[in-house]
Amino acid sequence: MKREYTGNIMYQEQLLEDCYRMVLKTDADLLQQALPGQFVHLRINPLGGPLLRRPFSIHSIDQEQGTLSLLYAVVGQGTRIMAADLPGKTVTLLGPLGTGFPHLPASTGEVVLVGGGLGTAPLLHTASWLQAAGRKTRVILGFPSQDRAMLASDFTQIGATVHITTEDGSEGYHGYPTSLLHKVLLRESVQAVFACGPHAMLENVAKVCGEAGIDAWISMEEKMACGIGACLGCVVRIRDEMGSHYEKACLDGPVFKASEVIFDET
Fold it and tell me: Which residue ranges make up the annotated binding site for [2Fe-2S] cluster?
């Protein structure tokens, strides 16, 4: 059940020039409830602005340390304030929110995770969850270039097989993550694909997996003002037997079955 929790900033890591990981000490109840692919709505300054909360995917959880981490890029006023925050500051977290990645039936096939840029954010917690359940996990991380690549070692440390792709070929596979995904689906036994990243990448994930007959679930990066389904600013068009209908990314998602999403209106 969602509720408001406090989070105390333990430390921050600067992963790239404009990308940070914030580690928060928070309530064990939130950590135990949070499922892979869910998010929290963060109030950066409980006693001041910005007015609106910011949605952030749950990046990772450490039950022993009692911490939750968030991955974010500095893109506006709120995240600039976050990047300047020092250890000891208290923020508030509404969550866990949304519908995450599904529990899959037992299988010897791999689960392949595909992340594009900052879309890697929810995949570390997801990979940890899969590895803890004894699932074979392969991760494909796509970046423009080597100097934008990050997090490979985090996934390797939890036992996942990791591939880096770069658009300019400066590291790993030369091309887009969906191009490598296509090759993996041809040569490996894959049960399902979980993905998060830009819409163009997610649309290609849906296409590649559809052609291969592999189920895929995608986390849609929609703008969320309220995070609780009131503002209707994050709707996604979904196929149904009557044609289509709209669902709210903050409640019904952010994770949707890829084959059900109509991309030309997202």
Answer: 226, 231, 234, 250
Nearest residue to 99 (alpha-carbon basis) of 183, 38, 158:
38
144 Cβ partners below 8 Å, 6+ apart? 117, 166, 167, 168
Binding-site residues, in ranges, read 54-57, 78-79, 226, 231, 234, 250
In this prediction the pTM is 0.94
Q: What is the pLDDT of residues 73-132, one digit of tens each?
A: 999 888 999 999 999 999 999 999 999 999 999 889 999 999 999 999 999 999 999 999
Binding positions for FAD: 54-57, 78-79
| Both tokens assigned to 113 | 């995770």
pLDDT at 49 over 70: no
How far is it, in rounded angstroms, from Cα 54 to Cα 155?
Answer: 26
Closest CA to 122 of 157, 72, 159, 158: 72
* All domains of the chain in start order, with CATH: 3-97 (2.40.30.10), 107-214 (3.40.50.80), 220-266 (2.10.240.10)
